[in-house]
Amino acid sequence: MIDRLIQYLKSSFRRKMARRVTREYKTRTDRFELPGIGNVSFANWENPLVKPRSISKGNVDFFRRFLNEGDMAVDIGANTGIITTYMALACGKQGKVLAFDPNPYVFRVLSENATLNTALATIDAYNVAITDQEGEYYYNSSEASFNNGGISSQPENRHGKYSLSQKIKGVRLEDFLEEKYAGQLTRIKLLKTDAEGYDKEILRSVSALLHRIKPVVIAECFGKLTQAERFELYDILASLGYTLYYFSDFDAAAEVVRLQSREDMLRWHHFDFYATMG
Q: How confident is the model at residue 9 (pLDDT cuts 50, 70, 90)?
């Protein structure tokens, strides 16, 4: 009883410090044996505010609904790379995932994960934000450890009081792809975005690309979005011919519900959805 109390107090203190003091945290490499796939590694960030993540065959099989061996995918807001890794394993060694995250603290972990599992998957990681205009942006977080956050054109913004000392770079996705992956765009079969409430701005900025190559889209409906913002998020994709589906988890056994209308965006507070053409 006393030992559990001491452990709880220590954990509580570490979380409190992570919210208030900026510092680097190490990673711990965990390994998972996946049937039919093999031994897979993932570098978990030992930030006290971050729960350890795991990888299962069900996670990979979820993305195998949309991705085949040799396909490419794009992960915008990749964070430390757990979803990136699921996607990359579904694409296989001959495929590739392009992972973007502007946060230098999580990007260090994402970069490490991009170097793991190279016999099974390929990940190209980039420390930039995807924006509608190329430029430099402020990055703020509500926590000193920069576990989360987002970009803004203004130094004081809704993301929090903790700000990076240097601005981060923003690039237009279509321009970036044309420069670095010209001739490979038709291989992109899935685009995922998780941008702390800015998913609709990102999707609008890449709407010409979506219309052109028609990938499956996975996005987040952020809990703080207003009704009008939720409707707008739905309309951006529906206007391009996409059908939207709520799903409960990144797992093959997850519940899936078709979103019949924009009003269905109000059924859940904070959720992920995918969108397919037709």
A: low
Q: How many residues does the chain have?
A: 278
CB atoms within 10 A of CB 225: 19
Q: How far apart are CA 13 and CA 70, in angstroms?
A: 46
Distance from C-alpha of 7 to C-alpha of 113, rounded to nearest angstrom: 29
| SS3 (DSSP) at 223 | coil
Inter-CA distances, 157 with 154, 160, 230, 244, 248, Å? 6, 7, 21, 31, 30
Return the domain boundaries, the chain: 27-128+186-277
What CATH number belongs to 27-128+186-277?
3.40.50.150
pLDDT digits (tens, 9 = 90+) for 11-47: 888 888 888 888 999 999 999 999 999 999 999 999 9
> Each residue of 94-118: pLDDT tens digit?
999 999 999 999 999 999 999 999 9
